[in-house]
Every structure is written in C-alpha cells, then in structure tokens.
Amino acid sequence: MLIIPTIHGSSERRGLYSVTQGKTCSFELHVPYNKRLCGSSHGWLAFVDENLVVTLLNPFTGRAISLPPVPKSTWRSMVAYRCDYYINKVVLSADPSFLPNDYEVLVIYDG
User: Fold this and answer.
1) 110 to each of 4, 65, 82, 99, how far by Cα in Å?
2) Could you tell me if 14 and 65 lie in one domain?
3) 38 and 26, same structural domain?
4) What is the pLDDT of residue 111?
5) Is the same domain home to 12 and 41?
6) In sequence order, what are the beta bridge partners of 24?
7) HEC string of the chain?
8) 24: domain range?
9) Residue 33 has pLDDT above 80, yes or no
10) How many domains does the chain have?
C-alpha cells in the first residue's frame, strides 16, 4: 500500500493505493501534513516535526505515541542542518497495540 494525496486535495487526509490491485482504496486516513513521514512498521507510521520529536501513529485507530526527544546534545550541533532530513528511519520491534509494554523503537538519525 502507498500513501497518496486525496482526490480532493485535502490537507488533513490521505488516500491509500493498492499496488497489487492497481487501484485506490475507497477510504481515507487522517494523517498529518505538517510532519514528515520517516518510517512505517507493524502498521504504525512514524512522523518527525521541526523540533525532532518523533510520533508514532496508527492511521486506522488514530492512536498516537510520542517518543522521547532526540538528545539535545546531539541536535544542538545540527542547528544549521535541515531538521526534516535529520531523522532517516524509524522501525518498531513489535506492534505497540499488541505488546504495549514490550516493544522497542529504533531511530536512525544523522548526528
């Protein structure tokens, strides 16, 4: 599945495109446009904002989990660096919906 802009150009919702079926799904997801998507894992999407705060979002349930911020000593050195490309990838070890107290998050960042 690919996340795509909606047909109507909504700034609050995105559509899904099924690559295997070659068509757009009939429903839309509430996914923020003011944050950069930096990963997906176990059905969750990972977004980063301009303050380097990573948020996990389950687009089907709407549940969001804010992660601890990137250590300040790391991002102070990159003030001139574009924060939208600072965090490269986010991966989950398990689905937080099924294992809420037993999952790990790996954040790959350029520091």
Assistant:
1) 27, 22, 11, 29
2) no
3) no
4) 55
5) no
6) 17
7) CEEEECCCCCCCEEEEEECCCCEEEEEEEECCCCCEEEEEECCEEEEECCCCCEEEECCCCCCEEECCCCCHHHHHHHCCCCHHHCEEEEEECCCCCCCCCCCCEEEEECC
8) 1-31
9) no
10) 2
This prediction has a pTM of 0.75
Q: Which of 4-13, 61-70, 101-110 has the lowest mean pLDDT?
A: 4-13
Looking at the structure, tell me whether residues 18 and 71 fall in a common domain.
no
44 and 58 in a common domain:
yes
> In degrees, to the nearest 5, what angle opens at C-alpha 86 toward C-alphas 85 and 88?
75
Residue 103's pLDDT is 93
**Identity of residue 43:** G
pLDDT at position 62 is: 86
